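Input (structure):
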């Protein structure tokens, strides 16, 4: 992709002097080192951020290698940093809460947006929250990587597609962008073609519905035959593309799908996600949502390097990138239906067991947004040989009445000998195997204290089972 031509915006007018001063220090470290390491959180946001930093470093003539972090516990983080402690390392989409585990390491720059606890550390910790930016809705890991790249050279504005990719993967586009994300979209997104359309992806309408996970349509997602029946009943050609629908067809389909989501009991913000601004970019065959899905899907299958290679220009990985994307969608849909049928109840929380650690958060997010009642947060467990990974997901309504899953995950995990943190609406933890019931009991008590007592009656509503 060619650098953007035309006038460029002064970055300081977008991010403020304090944040830019910190980015200036990171730029100096990059300038002073010929070889660097990028360590990114393994998910779609982190991998999008890694692509941004990789492209920016290539343009600076720097050599680098990319690694990924799954275990954000103290021991796991320290091991990753100590692997190449003599190389200047940029950790993105994680690190602020983990820097205290490597307090002596100086060759470490962090670009993060999560809640964190201050601790002794020599690392350069650049966190959106330190500058009054909401790291849950207003900035993600790719946001932080994008402004770091812009600070190196504002011609890196053309890395905008991968900033969007990370924000979409982190669900920060639901209900429209806000905060720093919104400023960046306004300042740098106007150069690209934007279309307001139904929030679907894929080569034709059957594929778009059958593989749709965000939005997720109960009984339609994962079912080709039901997808085709819905389209024919709505008078839509199943072989057409979402961008080829005329206005009448879009209105009819949006109404049908909206009624479907309402019948699933989705929240108001989630219903708004049925329609979105879709971007298309010169030289890239995929929409903004498709780029995000490709990167996120590959990442969740432990294939992070495949979309990185592809979007860095290796066309030989195109087929694999697309194949992994569809495979992930199929697996997620299957796991979501199964988890929904096997939800466990406590008074203030629901929980489930996921077959794969990388899927627990995705399953929980899908269930919380589209299938489960909105009165309680969800916790997903993945039990391995010695540890259990935990993912918590809430709703904005629950956050508005006091839910803070970052605090829940941190306190409950530490109480059973683990560690955790994240956002108020989505967070994770690692705990010793066998401590799941104790963790749920503690988390349930914390959530009871956080949320409004006025919701007690709602919490007694039974779980509606999915129809596949």
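Output (sequence):
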């Amino acid at each position: 992709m060619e650098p953007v031509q035309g006038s460029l915006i002064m970055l300081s007018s977008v991010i403020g002097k304090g944040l830019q001063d910190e980015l200036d220090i990171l730029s100096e470290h990059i300038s002073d080192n010929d070889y660097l390491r990028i360590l990114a959180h393994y998910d779609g946001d982190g991998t999008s951020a890694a692509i941004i930093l990789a492209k920016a470093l290539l343009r600076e003539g720097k050599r680098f290698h990319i690694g990924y972090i799954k275990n954000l516990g103290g021991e796991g983080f320290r091991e990753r940093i100590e692997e190449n402690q003599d190389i200047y390392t940029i950790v993105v989409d994680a690190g602020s809460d983990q820097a205290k585990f490597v307090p002596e390491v100086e060759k470490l720059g962090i670009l993060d947006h999560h809640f964190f606890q201050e601790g002794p550390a020599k690392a350069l910790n650049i966190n959106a929250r330190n500058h009054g930016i909401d790291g849950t809705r207003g900035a993600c890991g790719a946001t932080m990587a994008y402004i770091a790249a812009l600070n190196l050279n504002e011609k890196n504005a053309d890395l905008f597609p991968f900033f969007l990719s990370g924000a979409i993967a982190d669900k920060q586009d639901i209900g429209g962008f806000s905060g720093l994300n919104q400023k960046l979209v306004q300042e740098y997104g106007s150069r690209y073609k934007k279309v307001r359309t139904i929030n679907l992806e894929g080569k034709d309408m059957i594929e778009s519905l059958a593989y749709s996970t965000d939005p997720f349509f109960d009984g339609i997602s994962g079912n080709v035959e039901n997808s085709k029946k819905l389209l024919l009943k709505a008078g839509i050609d199943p072989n057409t593309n979402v961008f080829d629908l005329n206005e009448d067809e879009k209105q009819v389909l949006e109404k049908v799908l909206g009624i479907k989501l309402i019948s699933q009991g989705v929240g108001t913000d989630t219903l708004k996600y049925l329609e979105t601004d879709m971007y298309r970019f010169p030289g890239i065959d995929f929409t903004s949502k498709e780029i995000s899905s490709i990167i996120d899907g590959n990442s969740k299958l432990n294939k992070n390097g495949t979309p990185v290679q592809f979007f860095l220009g290796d066309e030989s990985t195109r087929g694999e990138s697309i194949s992994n994307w569809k495979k992930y969608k199929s697996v997620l849909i299957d796991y979501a239906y199964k988890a929904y049928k096997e939800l466990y109840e406590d008074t203030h929380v629901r929980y489930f067991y996921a077959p794969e650690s990388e899927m627990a958060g995705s399953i929980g997010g899908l269930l919380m947004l589209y299938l489960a009642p909105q009165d309680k947060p969800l916790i997903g467990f993945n039990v391995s040989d010695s540890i259990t990974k935990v993912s918590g997901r809430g709703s904005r309504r629950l956050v508005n009445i006091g839910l803070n899953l970052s605090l829940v995950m941190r306190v409950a995990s530490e109480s059973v000998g683990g560690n955790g943190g994240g956002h108020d609406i989505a967070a994770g933890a690692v705990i010793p195997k066998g401590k799941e019931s104790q963790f749920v009991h503690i988390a349930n008590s914390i959530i009871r204290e956080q949320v409004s007592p006025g919701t007690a009656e709602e919490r007694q509503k039974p779980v509606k089972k999915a129809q596949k």
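Notes: The two ends are 42 Å apart (CA to CA). The chain has three domains: 12-160, 195-333, 342-449.
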